[in-house]
Amino acid sequence: MSDQAELARDGQRGDAARGGTLLEQSADPPAGTWPAQGGNPAQGDPADGDQEAEPPRTETDLVIVTGLSGGGRSTVARALENVGYYVVDNLPQALMLDMAELAYRAGGAARRTAMVLDVRSRAFSIDLAGAVAALRGRGFSPRVLFVDADDEVLIRRFENVRRRHPLQGTGRLVDGINAERELLTEARDAADILIDTSHLNVNQLRNRVEELFGGEDARRLRVTVLSFGFKYGLPPDADFVLDARFLPNPFWEADLRDLSGKDEAVSRYVLNQRGATTFVETYARLINATAPGFEREGKRYLTVAVGCTGGKHRSVAIAEELARRLRDLRVGVAAQHRDLGRE
Asked: What per-residue confidence (pLDDT) applies to 146?
């Protein structure tokens, strides 16, 4: 799918929520019942004075995402998910306060919540400033992110996916864009962060969001070096496949047969074979050299599969050594062994 088509998908999304288990995580009253009578929810219940004080609501990281259809809301939502936000898509504006309370009460990962607002929601209100003020009055500190783009770009994106604008009605595409732009004028003016996506492709927009809302670790590539046995099949998620069967098999050494590649004796035997060290060094340099490019393209996980016959000796030893060398190169890496113990 082209970048234009990917961004234009915002004009046709209608998801209710991403990862919709937050209600199950919270034991609080259902939506619409906050605040409890007789107390200020931003300060906790006075009757709980002897209990440990609740953290302030300002510690709940709330991001409100809105903007023009086709501007890139869906890409923004996925980028926020990449850096650890719980994302609720197409949330009715009237439920923002209740959703914020659910996130606060649920705690954990839900303390970083993004709410995506869409004009297609029947409960959409143009009074975003009032909704944000209500959140702040409850003790929260939300940030509003608005995505925008030039009319010509929006038209091109909608035409690429051959979809109608949600506010177009019986008029032309440009009529729908103008109606939405007018509807969202105050929301745009009140935004804390404005991103014009007119000259951004999907990867550039995602990187921009991750720079704004994710730390360096959230944007780094994570490498999994996975050993496996060819006789059990290739790992379906492998990005690179390395074949260690060119090395002598420790299985045929009586004192090594019952050991695995994680044992020092097997590892030493494998790595001392001709070509083994060069093999590992070559792939360590290759992965280290390509990691920045993968990160720029938005790839966050890379699986390097190392195979031998049964996934017990050679592949395990090579995978462990490759992971060690990548750590020395400051690449985020973990070694896993799919078929170890399977025989």
From this structure: 92
